[in-house]
Structure formats: structure tokens, C-alpha cells
Amino acid sequence: MSSIVESEPVAAYLALRARITELVTELTERYASHLQCRRGCSFCCEAIEVLPIEREALRRWSAHASALAPAQHGRSRIPAGQSVDRSVHGTFSASGNSSKCAMLEKDGACTVYEARPIICRTHGLPLAYRVYEYDQSGEQIRPDDPEYTDLWCDLNFRLLEDSHAKRFFDTNGRIDMDAVNSQIEAINAAFLRTPDGARYEAERTRMPLQRQD
Ligand code: SF4
What we know:
- With 213 residues, the chain is mainly alpha-helical.
- The protein is 35% helix and 8% strand.
- It has a domain at 8-116 and 179-208.
- The chain is built from seven helices and five strands; from the N terminus they run H-E-H-H-H-E-E-H-E-H-H-E.
- Iron/sulfur cluster binds at residues 45, 48, 101, 103-104, 110, 112, 116-117, 120, 209.
């Protein structure tokens, strides 16, 4: 596959995506005996929202992939003549379910698997989200010593009880989604200041990868 010339924020996003993919690979090996994730399982592919930098990365990949012969698409398949940009804005959805991602095929496979957004790469793995607590005056409680809550897939970790999750998912065994999202947001802010980013002026916020019509 020929290389795609990237603007700096897009390159930074792709580098972050590659680092998260490495972490996901490590965690997938660690939890291999638990994971049931497989092609066709699409429980996580619901109400996914992504920032302009992520839509731009998908758009560029789609334009590039569309130019390749179908045999070169690997696991990712885009219907002939359709681009991710069109999908994002709701001109096609294989699922027929408005809350499901527009990138989903009827058999539950992802049409953009190779270029799927970062959040999609974390599907099925334990994720840690920071809990923000405030006192009555509106001051944040323990801003330097935050609490985290863990989310995980019940299909993968069937027998895990809430009370055991903290011990089971140690700091290195889960993905800190606040740290990941902070990095995506910083890259997105830089992207929006570029000429390409300016094209997203009307839709600068997170938007769903779902059918809009
Ligand atoms: S882009 Fe692919 S992996 Fe991500 S939510 Fe959509 S169908 Fe699922």
C-alpha cells in the first residue's frame, strides 16, 4: 500500500492510534482466556461518537482504500462507490438500527476495521474512567487523587463481580480512557486550527458514527 501524506495533527492521531493498538494487543494477550470478541459480535458498536480528527482520519483512509482493488482491502471492506465520509453523514447503514454504527455490515462485521477509531480498538477490554466528585460549593474533591471506575464487557468477564474488579484489573491491566481522550482532544484542537480542520467548522464536536436520516 502506498503511503498517505498526512498533515501533522493527523499524523499525531495515527501515532496515538498505533500506541493504543499496541496496548490493546498486550491486553488481548493478557486476557486471552476470557475474551469472546470475534468477527460478528457488535454489541459495542452502538452510540459511538468521534471528534473531527477521527472522522478526518477515516475519510482519508476511505479515499485511499477506495482507490485500491477490493482484494487489497484485507479485513476492511467498503461497499463499492461509497466512502466513509458519506457513511458518517448517514447515507448508508447496513444495520437498519439507528443506534448501531453506520460502519456495520449486516453480519456484524466492521467495514472500516483496519481504520476503526481508537474507541473501537478498546472494545471488550477493561476501561477505567475517572470519577469527578464535587463538594457543595462546587469545588472538585481530591483533584490530585481521583477515583476511577472500571467498565468491562460481561460477555468476556462473565464471572467477575464488581467487588473484585479493582484487584482483577490492576493499573496496567486496563486502559485509562481519560488519558486517551485527553490526548485525542488535544490533537483534535490542533487539527481544528489547520485549513483541513476548518472544514469541520459546522460540526466541531463529537458526532455519532451512525445513520442520521
Ligand atoms: S467503526 Fe467499526 S468497530 Fe467501530 S463502532 Fe463502527 S462498526 Fe464497530
